[in-house]
Fold:
Amino acid sequence: MPKNIYEKLAPVNNICLLILAGTALTGILVYAKAVLMPFVIAVFLSIVLNTIAQWMKKQWNVPHLLGFLLGILLFLGLAALSVIFISNSISSFVDGANIYAEKLNATVAWFLHTAEKLGFRINAQFIADLLNRLPILNLVRTMGSTVVSFISNLLLVSLFLIFLFMGRASADEKNALTTNIEKQISYYLLIKIFVSLLASVSTWIILSITGTELATMFAVLTFVLNFIPNIGPFIATLLPMPVLFLQYGFDWHIIAAGGLLAGTHFIIGNILETKWLGKGMDLNPVVVIACLIFWALVWGAIGALLAVPLTSIIKMILERSEPTRPFADILAGRIPLR
Structure:
């Protein structure tokens, strides 16, 4: 009889243990995020670079470790160029701050005049005080501190990449789980990198044609934001609109840029990416949104960027054990019936 009771309570025990383990793991992730985030980024980068190194060895007979090292140097070079471009864009924006302020005041004056004609009473002094309190300088300082933080994290990621490179040089044997994780994650990340690069270049072309300031910075941000499912492309479409409004007001520039950016992200995200990724990481769309919220709360913006591959790894680990397999089915949208 006690044995039967234990068997009946086994699923409940598994759920309770999983909740406790998840809670403890979440606490560790939050407490050690300053070190864990760069390490996880370095692991994902090493997976991508390892796949590229294998392809170079197959196509051009380049030694695997040399290809991996070339990939690290390429990553560092692209990251350095991104920092330079963003810094120059911020500097250019600051130099034109007075011009943007004049255009903003002119736009507000037109709005107030139009509102008065239509019979609306608006306190002009209140609007003026509100504009004076806009945290433009604080926003610029925040951008600058973000660049400094990016550089410091880049150094830590590079350090972890070097250790991972040395680890691959000493031993390259993997079990079935590690091989499966690397295969799925590398395919997903390579497709996302290519799609994000395509969206980034398209954004730069559209914003350059419309004469938008900070076009390069918005292109870099588009590349990063495209890794956030559903929400990222939407944010990337809206980001240039305030700058366009400050430059030209509400005219054909903002309409053309907004329409072209929205169409580009729709084609790339809903047609090309869906075609190339197929089922993707075998995660339910509702689960993706929930995990996006969870990882964003735990690790902030970096957590949102890594939400899909991290959740996919958790799902693959849960699939390996019979007691935890139902939870993997839930993540995939296959709700177990018993």
